[in-house]
Write a structure and sequence with these properties.
Helix content is 32%, strand content 18%. The chain is of the alpha/beta class. The longest helix has 16 residues.
């Protein structure tokens, strides 16, 4: 197939530092190329990809030093270029939320739109009620709860390239928190767990401008403890050492996380995950195999101690089976072919995954 992948322009593909959606797009593009599909990536010029790159901006927006810039204008220009070339592709796969809806209505049947963000937002419902002809893909079944009537074509869980994450058979005796400092990510819970258990915690996290006050007022005062080390924002090249050295990744979220990429990044390194039972975590974590799900501080403390006993090689094997980039690409190709009418027409409208690869609900 000839496939267009349309990425957001906020981060490079893959991101140089923090970033989820663009990282997934990067790994999907490379896996599609490896599987023999002609793939074109519409993105900023600093993308690193095995696909054909169609650059639509000189660099990604967040690290662009220009003092004045318009994310809306940048994305509108990209969509104009995608529209100009739309006839070249069997499938146009959008990762830019809903901004393309008014411009591709006549070929909506040749598009796939993956929703990467939270959907419990007041103004979203009317948009998806208005544009019902776009096939939508959720990144977890839980994500759909807030838009149950959207035109869902399937759920495809994220995947990552196995080779960029090094397996670590042994940990170095600390806990890890990786991601973004924000109230819904609950780094305060992670700090509290570490202090109660007397185990070192390393925090590698981005602090957005919107969360700067929360960081200064709520989190910074908690860092003045020999058990707590604030590493700051890290990139892909540092993740294997950071995650692989941990006894467990703490994922103490307090919001309906649509997926939680860091969970499978930890699993790729052989590191189990202790996650609050919230959002997608029940679909991603297999209790007693790749980590534990908890509902309270007491359960979290016990889970950390039990996580140390899990087979780290088994954690890595489950990642390779369920969350490799190759597995993700195969699922998307099944969906592309179904929507293009080239698959078995007797099959049901939603993608039915191999039970061995499907996620437990």
């Amino acid at each position: 197939m000839k496939i267009a992948q349309i990425a957001p322009l906020y981060e490079a593909v893959p991101p140089k530092l923090y970033g989820g959606t663009e990282r997934v797009v990067a790994h999907l593009c490379d896996a599609l190329v490896d599987q023999g599909h002609e793939t074109v990536l519409f993105s900023s010029a600093d993308a690193m990809t095995r696909a054909e790159l169609a650059p639509v901006r000189d660099q990604a927006i967040r690290l662009d030093p220009a003092p004045l810039k318009s994310d809306l204008a940048a994305h509108m220009s990209m969509l104009a270029e995608v529209r100009r070339r739309a006839h070249e592709f069997d499938v146009l796969h959008f990762h830019v939320d809903m901004i393309h809806f008014p411009f591709f209505e006549d070929i909506a049947h040749r598009t796939v739109t993956t929703l990467h963000g939270r959907l419990d937002i007041k103004d979203l419902g009317p948009v998806y009620d208005r544009w019902t002809n776009y096939p939508m893909v959720s990144i977890s079944d839980d994500q759909r709860r807030y838009l149950p009537n959207a035109n869902w074509a399937g759920t495809v869980h994220h995947g990552m390239q196995s080779e960029i994450y090094r397996f670590s058979a042994n940990s170095n005796g600390y806990l890890a928190f990786l991601g973004r400092i924000s109230p819904e990510k609950r780094p305060d819970r992670a700090i509290a767990i570490a202090k109660r258990l007397g185990i070192k915690l390393k925090i590698a996290a981005k602090v957005d401008a919107a969360d700067a006050r929360y960081f200064e007022e709520k989190i910074a005062p908690l860092l003045n403890d020999p058990l707590i080390e604030f590493v700051g924002e890290i990139g892909d090249s540092q993740k294997s050492a950071f995650l692989g050295g941990a006894d467990a990744l703490l994922f103490p979220i307090d919001w309906p996380e649509p997926f939680g990429l860091v969970m499978i990044e930890a699993m790729a390194c052989g590191t189990p995950v202790v996650a609050w039972r919230c959002g997608s975590t029940s679909e991603v974590i297999e209790p007693g195999v790749t980590g534990f799900l908890v509902d309270s501080d007491e359960e979290a403390d016990q889970a950390v101690l039990k996580a140390r006993q899990l087979d780290r090689a088994a954690v890595r094997r489950r990642f390779e089976l369920r969350y490799s980039a190759a597995a993700m690409a195969r699922r998307y190709v099944d969906l592309y072919e179904r929507l293009a009418g080239t698959a078995n027409t007797d099959a049901p409208p939603e993608i039915q995954l191999d039970p061995a690869l499907a996620c437990t609900a």
